[in-house]
Every structure is written in C-alpha cells, then in structure tokens.
From TrEMBL:
Its EC number is 3.2.1.21. The active site is at E349 (nucleophile). InterPro entries: GH, GH_1_N_CS, Glyco_hydro_1, Glyco_hydro_1_AS, Glyco_hydro_1_beta-glucosidase. Keywords: Carbohydrate metabolism, Cellulose degradation, Glycosidase, Hydrolase, Polysaccharide degradation. Belongs to the glycosyl hydrolase 1 family. This is Beta-glucosidase. The lineage of its organism: Bacteria, Pseudomonadati, Pseudomonadota, Alphaproteobacteria, Rhodobacterales. It comes from the Bacteria. NCBIfam families: BGL.
Length: 436
C-alpha cells in the first residue's frame, strides 16, 4: 500500500466515523434529530432506512476501539450527537449521553489513541430544526451552549476539536440540492445556511478557546470541478461550482470574504449585516481538515443562478458512481496550503464505497493512490500535511443512500452486527506496521 518510512516521524494515521452513522438509536434518552424525521418521510432515503440501529456502536464500543488499536492507528475521528446530550437542543442535558462520550474518550486514551472530536456531524435536534435550524441565526447561541456543555465534559481529554463537519453539506447539499436533511431546495434558505454555518463555527471556536480546549480546527469538503467541455459556458459553470463548493468556506475562514462568483447569486439572500461576522468567522485556527472523495464534470444548464449541472464522466467509478480522481486530492492540499500558509493540514476523510465485502481490491488501490498524492503534496510541493484519516472504520449508514454503500475497512453484517475486517484493513495494518 505504502511504506510508513516515506512519511516523516510524527505523521499521524487515523480512521473516522460519525455519531448518527454508527451509534444506533434513541436508546438512552437521546432526543429526536432531523435525520430521524427526514428518513421517516418517504422518498428521502433509499428504502426509508434510518439510524435507529446502525452499527450499534453504543453497544459494541469496546470491540470497535479494539479494531482501531489493532489496526495500528494513531487517531480516531468521531463525532458527538447534539440530540443525544441535549434532547431538547438546549437546556437539560441527558446524563446517559454524556456518560457514553466520557467512556468513549477514556476508552481511546486507554488504548493510546488520540480522540479527534467533531461537534456537529449533521444530527440537528428536531426541536431546533422546527425553529428554522440553520436558517435561524439563533443557531449560533444554541450551538455555543452545546459546545460549552461538551467542552466542560470531554474538552480536557480530546486531542483536537472541530465544530462542524463539511459546511458545504450542512448548507448547500441540504438547503439547495435537497439531498440531506432538512431536504430544502431554496436559494434563500441555502444562502442563510451557508453564512450561519460559518457564524456558528465562529461562536463554537470562541467557546472552545475559552474552555482551553486544545488544537481547534475546521473540516471542509472539496470536490474537483472539471468543465464538461472546453466551451466558455461550461468552463464558467465549472468555476461557479468550484467557488460554491471549494472556495466559499475557506474564503470565510481565511480571507474574510466570500468569492465574487458566489456573491453574484447569494448576496441578495444573505442575512442582513453578514459582513460584521467576518472577524468572528476568521478567528485563527490550529489546523485545517480536508475531506476529499471525487471530481464532478460540470456543464452549463438553463435556469436561474447557478445555472449548472453535473454530467456523467469517463473515469472509473465507485459503488455510488463517484469518479475516482486521486490527483484532485493533491490539488486541494496545495490550494488550502496557499489559503492558510503554514497551517498544519490533515486529510480528515478519504475513502470509497465498494460492494464486495472481502474482495476489496478497489479500496486498496483507491487508498494507495490517494495516499501517494497526499505524499507528493507534502514531499514535492511542500504542503504542511501532518496526517491522513480514512473514511471509514466501519460500513455504516450512508445518509440518503441508506446501508447499501460500504465505506468501511471493516465489514458490518447488518443482521448480526458482526464486524469482519476486510482485505483493506489488513493491507493498511501491515503498511503501518512495517517500520513502526
Ligand atoms: C461525507 N455528496 O459526506 C461525510 O462526512 C460522511 O458522513 C460520509 O459518509 C462520507 O462523506 C461519504 O459520503 C458526504 O453527496 C456525503 O456530495 C455526500 C456528499 C458529499 C459528502
């Protein structure tokens, strides 16, 4: 797969999961969240599947932490569920939920693993969704309260903290493309969510700093935007897609400004006085996480801004139809290194869905090729890359696609919930061992 000696001492390796995708259930006093509601509405999720059971990580936490440790990893990137610890979104905490995350963090530390904590990986408490969720500026206050509660509980023992996983998914995919909860297709809702997600990030960073939580960063996702043809119209559409997806959030975080190509469409819909939040949004961070999976081929399309549409491409694809384009990872590592000179960068997600549980050659070559691009970005381009975290430890709930797509290094049998390491797990394990 690769040789650990090609990477500097101290380069960190990890695997990621998220709460709703693996934990299972409202058992233990958790409140409803908007993914429970979204999945219950026919047509939103493949087979109307939901996270009620998922991988039953809550019941099998020790087994899962042992799998991480036996793999030889340094980091486990996980998230805490807002609705599990604050069933009403704010107010009275659920003791059982807090105890679970205490045990999770302690279990990681006992095994010598670094806990990389994400506060929000998408399960917004339903009560708050009903009050407008990410469209409502009050989300800043709600999120700050949740951050404060969790910081006081696990903030002293985590290795790193990131307020929000993938602002693009939280805002655009969920409020403009309608693919994730709350499933809106509304430019005004999208514009407000795009800004509020960064505003809430800023509010949480303030809280985490105030609570002396160390190593505070942000995690953004990136998708390589390839013009479907050489035409001026397609090239322009691809630039717009790139600006919305790949430059809006880093623009806010590192340049105190949003890209012109996005303001062209969003400015009339942004919340009044949004410019005043830019200093909060741009507070210094300790690291940036890059999530990268694929490229899209973008063509101009009729209709209102952004007037574009993805079209089919010619590269080999994964189980979910995503084109495999490893060079894109190197591209974005270089881009963010220019955005934030000197800031440590981590790949915080990279991986693929591949069906065959035990013949996952495609997974091994996908990981090998992307890790090689990350290595080149570091060794040849001078990007300050400090670690690589793969998605995911386990097969899990792939949001609107349900349980079909299998992203795990470890196979999960959803009838018995039995875990079985795949070939890629063993390949990664021996790569990490060689010179350790
Ligand atoms: C990321 N899209 O999500 C998430 O952080 C994970 O929870 C998820 O399982 C993983 O990637 C694999 O999909 C995305 O439709 C989900 O463009 C969907 C999209 C992008 C990212």
């Amino acid at each position: 797969m690769f040789d650990r000696s090609q990477f500097p001492d101290g380069f960190l390796w990890g695997a990621a999961t998220s709460a709703y995708q693996i934990e299972g259930g409202a058992q233990g006093g958790a409140g409803r969240n908007h993914w429970d509601d979204f999945a219950a509405t026919p047509g939103n999720v493949e087979g109307a599947e939901n996270g009620d059971v998922a991988c039953d990580h809550i019941g099998r936490m020790d087994e899962d932490l042992d799998l991480l440790k036996d793999l030889g990893l340094d980091i486990y990137r996980f998230s805490t569920s807002w609705a599990r610890v604050l069933p009403e979104g704010t107010g009275t905490p659920n003791r059982e939920g807090l105890d679970f995350y205490d045990r999770l963090v302690d279990g990681l530390l006992e095994r010598g693993l670094k806990p990389a904590w994400t506060l929000y990986h998408w399960e917004l408490p339903s009560v708050l969704a009903d009050r407008g969720g990410w469209r409502n500026r009050d989300i800043g206050d709600w999120f700050a309260e949740y951050a404060d509660l969790m910081a006081s509980r696990i903030g002293d023992r985590v290795w790193s903290a990131a307020p929000i996983n993938e602002p693009w998914c939280v805002a655009w995919l969920s409020h403009f493309e309608g693919v994730h909860a709350p499933g809106l297709r509304d430019i005004r809702a999208a514009a407000r969510a795009m800004h509020h997600v960064l505003y809430a990030h800023g509010r949480a960073v303030e809280v985490l700093r105030g609570a002396n939580v160390s190593n505070v960063g942000a995690v953004c996702n990136f998708e390589y935007s390839n013009p479907a043809s050489d035409s001026e119209a397609d090239r322009r559409a691809a630039r717009t897609y790139d600006a919305i997806y790949n430059r809006f959030f880093t623009g806010g975080l590192f340049h105190g400004a949003y890209p012109e190509e996005v303001l062209e469409g969003l400015e009339p819909h942004l919340p009044h006085g949004w410019q005043d939040d830019m200093p909060l949004i741009g507070q210094p961070l300790d690291w940036l996480g890059v999530n990268y999976y694929t490229r899209k081929n973008i063509a101009a399309a009729p209709g209102p801004w952004p007037a574009l549409a993805p079209v089919d491409g010619s590269l080999p694809k994964t189980q979910v139809g995503w084109e495999i384009y490893p060079e894109g990872l190197r591209h974005f590592l270089n881009q963010v290194a220019r955005d934030a000179p000197g800031l440590p960068i981590y790949v915080t997600e990279n991986g693929l869905a591949a069906e065959a549980p035990h013949q996952d050659d495609q997974r091994i070559s996908y990981l090998t090729d992307h890790i090689e691009q990350a290595r080149k970005a570091m060794a040849e381009d001078g990007v300050p890359l400090a670690g690589y975290i793969t998605w995911s430890l386990l097969d899990n709930y792939e949001w609107s696609l349900g349980y079909g797509p299998r992203f795990g290094l470890v196979h999960v049998d959803y009838d018995t919930l039995e875990r079985r390491p795949k070939a890629s797990y063993h390949a990664l394990r021996s790569a990490l061992k060689r010179s350790a």
